[in-house]
Hints:
Layout: E1 2-7, H1 11-22, E2 27-30, E3 42-45, E4 48-51, H2 62-73, E5 78-81, E6 85-88, E7 91-93, E8 103-105, H3 111-118, E9 123-124, E10 129-134, E11 139-143, E12 148-156, H4 160-167, H5 175-182, E13 186-195, E14 208-211, E15 217-222, E16 235-240, H6 242-248, H7 254-268, E17 278-289, E18 298-300, E19 305-308, H8 311-314, H9 318-337
Parallel strand pairs: 1-2, 1-12, 2-9, 6-14, 12-19
Antiparallel strand pairs: 3-4, 5-8, 6-7, 10-11, 11-12, 13-16, 13-17, 14-15, 15-16, 18-19
Amino acid sequence: MKDVIVIGAGMAGLICAQQLKQAGLDVTVVEKSAGVGGRMATRRLQGTWVDHGAQLISVKSDGFGRFIRKLQEKRIVQEWTRDVYQLSAAGLLPPKDDNRHTRYCCPMGMTAIAKYLAHELTIVNNTRIIGVNHNDSTWQLVTDRQEILETKAIVSTIPAPQFLPLFEEVLAPAPSFLQAVQSVKFVPSVTIMAGYNANNAVPVEWQAIKCVNDPILDWISYDSSKHPDKSSQPVFVLQSTAEFAKQSMEEPDLEIAGKPLLHQAGKLLAKWLATPEWWQVHRWRYALAEESLGVSCLSTAIPLALVCAGDWCAGKNIEAAYHSGLAAAESAIDLIKN
Ligand SMILES: Cc1cc2nc3c(=O)[nH]c(=O)nc-3n(C[C@H](O)[C@H](O)[C@H](O)COP(=O)(O)OP(=O)(O)OC[C@H]3O[C@@H](n4cnc5c(N)ncnc54)[C@H](O)[C@@H]3O)c2cc1C
């Protein structure tokens, strides 16, 4: 039997598992995907890296700043830009002075951070938790291969709407914990990754663009500017608004679901952005919490030791997930000791 099973190998789960391991606990991370990183996601396309989840890293706290500096020293993270331009009906505007601060990226894709954290952890990939039971002293997690994993404590770092169907029944004796998770709503997002003819010139202002009040597009970035092989072909990432994603989420044809984003980029910035040489679509059903809970993590000893963590507890970004993962490790250690 494990001391702790962490569900999810995103930022929160990995940083939590690392802390638990350092505290001498026997910890395993269970992840449904083949890789690690969760929404810090990178695809290998046409010989390059394309980030189709989180685009950049901002640093607010000293603790996260130290973590990012360590990753910089290891060349996993580098400075990307200080300028996120704003695109609105008024055109493309530079950021105001108070919004000019360093945004970081990963030259080999956002998943590089997760791969670094995963090093030396026990991670079981391609394994989805589909059910949860318990007796007086032990949790039993049921996997999609019908295996039973036994553990003294669970740290779940999956989005709140994915947590609920698994844990709702066993958490009946902990109603306030359950209500807190139930109050978190997530919104979806559609992402396009698109490669263009190398003859197209990309202005420096297009590196990172936040769209303001656009019904379809929320974000446009020149993704290949993050990666060392940027000269081969311009690759862009377009991300939709939540409103657009809600309508396109159930569209069975991915091309139809994604095409309006390309058209809109062509309309707003330059015609050639509507006609890439290749493109792919990814739909995030649970992209971001509408509002986070404003707590570092949630924990309960009833019915047994359980901690919920992730960006949706503490904020809506990688830094929030990092802090939530650290807090979850502390809570899990407390629960196991008491
Ligand atoms: C399109 C998009 C753009 C974003 N842009 C930015 C940005 O520019 N900057 C920024 O800081 N943040 C950004 N974010 C948010 C950022 O990606 C997240 O805040 C952060 O990655 C969340 O980490 P996490 O560990 O909390 O959750 P996740 O990364 O979601 O990790 C949860 C993990 O649990 C796994 N899982 C789920 N269910 C199960 C199950 N039943 N069994 C086993 N495993 C399971 C998932 O596969 C996943 O790996 C963006 C997110 C999206 C979707």
